[in-house]
Amino acid sequence: MMKSRVRYLLIMLIFVVSAVVYIDRSNISIAGTYLAADYHISKVQLGWVFSAFLLGYAAFQIPAGWVVGKLGPRKTLTLGLIWWSVLSVVTALVPPSMGGSLWVLIAVRFVLGMGESVAYPSSNQFIAAWFPTQERGKANGWVFGGVGLGSGTAPPLVALIVYNYGWHAVFYISAVIGLVIAAIWYFYARDTPAEHASVTNEEKAHIAAGMPLKIEGVMPPVPWKKIFTSVDVWCTALA
User: Fold this and answer.
1) Looking at residues 113-128, what average pLDDT do you find?
2) Beta carbons of 145 and 13 less than 8 angstroms apart
């Protein structure tokens, strides 16, 4: 029996997810001029809307890792895709005439950032379960290749959509793409090779042979104090 390569089909799906993540986070930057005109907000206020996403995204990275640990990458990434697809639609549906519409937009973008925070913790756990150590660099290359694709294609694509269909359409189309990928990921992906019916015994053996050895005995506690008082850690974080 030929050795299957299901893990590479799945990492290609994550490549697409990674591209969609960057299209979703950058589409408002490109459509922002039109959005600001409709909502009668200044450039500074538009900056608040942009920053809200990043604050939500950054604040929920650690909770996102906890969620992935509980639910696994299959369910977490599916829920994340649905979450940020719905919030993309909500971004376009906030009525400009509504009182406090600016603050609603800021809240929506913050919550959207929360949802997108699960993307890379999910991909990391997926790679840890599906790829032997010698292939993890390649797998991560595909994940972050999606970042380049998304950030590189978003400006012309979003500009084309805005020009032809208006800025609202950008968020509707992003949502549809996200929901389609969510369905494909949920039905095809599994948390481990053992759970996937299409993975041959040869592929399972290949993956298992390249896994790091498990350390027996009680694991030492995480040195949180040392981590949070490390100058190197803070310099890296602030950079």
Assistant:
1) 94
2) no
